[in-house]
């Protein structure tokens, strides 16, 4: 009997991992597959996960009369150059599209979740969120704010004074709303959104995707994201965290299942238990389904092997079953359970864009 279990259980796990890989989903281990089966809370980082991660600058404003918008843009591009953060790349790209070349900076320092500080032409320049300016003792009272849904904003300050602001948009991925709906309705998972962005922007994204406002957490530092994950785990949830950046590493480490993308930062991709190689969120429901289906197959295989052999044992004790027949039944149950474990390999490979993968097919044994 133990031989049948030793053969059929790894067969089911390997078949599920192989089937997921054919769908563009790398699940690193059998443990990760098992954890996926129990996921009942999914926590998303916003930028680059629920959104495209390709911000676009839509406006540059000068907040001091003596500094035109072109100079504000040049200062920001100078400070943000050669940084890999999506917003920094958007600033530099926007500047180059308008013929503004970054200058030279010195002594720059990047603060995760806040922004950048550097020296440009002898001036101390800050480019980042309102929290960065507040931390430096620079007030923002009376400054204009974009309307709700009008984008996020970063500020430019020189020598302790705000001299400009830039508004950018980072629209949701086209599949995000569909995936959030599937996770909530088909899988019964509690969906959370985490971001370091302002509450106004976070709530606008959450409303557009159907995420409850009470599950939307804004203005978070990396350690705050990890605290949300720890809190859900302390409440008895099995938590999957989906993120793609350096800022997400603490939360990825604390989650029961960490999920990232093939195009994520190297460290996030290598840390993750599950990697969506196609950079498509629709792989997440399929990964959860694969875990649940594999667990069902394992239970079925144990039942096939144990039930058949126990029945044969009873017949043998009663003298109704000879040694040859018992051997045939034992080996036959092993073959049957092994074949049952290979069922995931029969699943068709879905083309990208074929709906939410893992929800459209029957989620049963």
From TrEMBL:
GO-annotated molecular function: ATP binding; ATP hydrolysis activity; ATPase-coupled monoatomic cation transmembrane transporter activity; metal ion binding
InterPro entries assigned to the protein according to its UniProt record, in alphabetical order: ATPase_P-typ_cyto_dom_N (IPR023299), ATPase_P-typ_P_site (IPR018303), Cation_Transport_ATPase_IB (IPR051014), HAD-like_sf (IPR036412), HAD_sf (IPR023214), P-typ_ATPase_IB (IPR027256), P_typ_ATPase (IPR001757)
Annotated localization: Cell membrane; Endomembrane system
Membrane topology: Multi-pass membrane protein
Gene3D superfamilies, A to Z: Calcium-transporting ATPase, cytoplasmic domain N (3.40.1110.10), HAD superfamily/HAD-like (3.40.50.1000)
Keyword Cell membrane included in the entry's annotation: yes
Keywords attached to this entry: ATP-binding, Cell membrane, Hydrolase, Membrane, Metal-binding, Nucleotide-binding, Transmembrane, Transmembrane helix
One GO location term (cellular component): endomembrane system
Enzyme nomenclature, EC number: 3.6.3.3, 3.6.3.4, 3.6.3.5
Family (UniProt): Belongs to the cation transport ATPase (P-type) (TC 3.A.3) family. Type IB subfamily.
Name of the protein described by the UniProt record: Lead, cadmium, zinc and mercury transporting ATPase Copper-translocating P-type ATPase
